[in-house]
Amino acid sequence: xxVASVRRAxxxxxxxxxPTFWWLWTSTLVNRLGAFVATFMTxxxxxDRGYSAFFAGLVVALHGLGGVISSLVAGVMTDRLGRRxxxxxxxxxTAFSVALLGFMEHPAAIAAVALLVGMTSNASxxxxxxxxxxxxxxxxxxxxxxxxYWAINLGFAISSTAAGFVAEYSYLAGFLGEAALTxxxxxxxxxxxxxxxxxxxxxxxxxxxxxxxxxxGAGDADEVRLGGVxxxxxxxxxxxxxxxxxxxxxxxxxxxxxxxGQEGFSPADYGLxxxxxGILIVVLQLPVTRLIEHRDPQxxxxxxxxxxxxxxxxxxxxxxxxxxxxxxxxxxLAEIVNSPTQMGLVVRMSxxxxxxxxxxxxxxxxxxxxxxxxxxxxxxxxxxxxxxLWAATGVLGTVAGLGYWALMRDLPAETEPAAEGAVVAGxxxxxxxxxxxxxATGAExxxxxxxx
Length: 452
Prior knowledge:
The protein is an all-alpha fold.
C-alpha cells in the first residue's frame, strides 16, 4: 500500500464520529495506561507475597465477584441516574480502592479490598458502553467499539511492558500509579463528558426509536426492567456464550502468568509476552475492523470462538518466550474479531431506554468469568497441571462456536433507526443530540442521518 492509501484508510477509520466519543475514547486510553492490578495480581500474590496459586486464584475470583455485583447495580444506575454520574462515582471510588489495596498486609484484608476493587472498577463498563451507543450512529457502532477497544489495548501494550519492570522494583508503585491515572479519568469525565441518556418516550423525537429493537423479549423499551432483560432468551443465550469466551480470554491474565511463573519466567518476561496481545491489536484492530464491520456477525463469532479456544490450547506446547508469543498472536486474532462484533450485537439487541441494564447483564458475563476463571485455573494447575487447563480452553471454544451458530440463525435484521435527533440531557440540563457528528452539548442538533 502507498503512503497516501494508508493515510486515506486511517482517515476513513476515524472520520464521522462525534467529539464526545473522542473524549470518552481518551478517558479509556488514560485508564488503561494505568492498568496494573488485573494484570499482575496473580504474580504479586504468588511471587512477591509467597501465596499459593489457589489463594491467588481465590483473591482474583473475589475481584471478579465484586464485578458481578456491580455489573447489575451499575447497569440500573446507568439507566436511572445517567451515564455521567455513574462514571464519576465508579472512577473516583476505583482510584481510592486500588491505592488502598497496595497497603494491605493481612490475607483477609487483601481479599476484602480486592472484592472492593472489583466492584468499583467494573462499575464504569455499562455506562461507557451505553454512552457510546447513545452518541454514535448505528452504522458506525462496530467501528466505534473497535476504536475504543484499540485504545484499551494501546494502553495495555504500554502499561503491561512498563508495569512488568515496575513490579520488579515495587508493586506498591504499580498500585499507586493505577490509582493516579484512574483519578485523571474521573477529572476528564467531569470536565468534558456531558450526559447522553436519551429522554423517555413521549417527548417526540426519540419516541419511535425507543420502542424498536431486534432481539425481542423485553417488551416496550420504556418498561424495561432487570427481570425483562433476564427473560429475553436469545439475549441471555448470547450472554452465556460471552461467558464461555470470557473464560478463555481471562486465562491470559490468570492462567498464563501462573503457568509461566512455574516454568521459571519472570514478571518482566510475562509482561513482554502479554504485550504482544496489545501491540497486535494496536496494529491490526482498525484494518481488520474495516474488513469485517459489514459482514455476517454469526460467521465472525463462530470463527473467532474456535480460534480463541485453540489459540490458548497451543500454550500447552510452548516452552520459550517466542513460542508463548506465537500462541498469544493466534488468540489475539480471535479477540480482534470477537470483541467489536459481540459488542455491536449487544447494542443491536438492546432497547434504547434499557441500554444500561442490557449492558450491565452483558458485562456480568465477563465479571462472572473473572470470578470463575481464576478458581478454575488455580485448581486445574495445582491438581492436574497447566496442560489440562489449555486443553479445556479448546473445548470451550468449540462449544461457544457451536452455540453462536445455533443462536444466531434467523436473527432479525437491525431495525433501530439511526439516532434521529435523540434528545439527551446536557451538562446543565440542556438538550443535545445523541446522533450525528456533533457532541451532546446542548447545541442545535444537526440533521439526522439515517442508517443505510
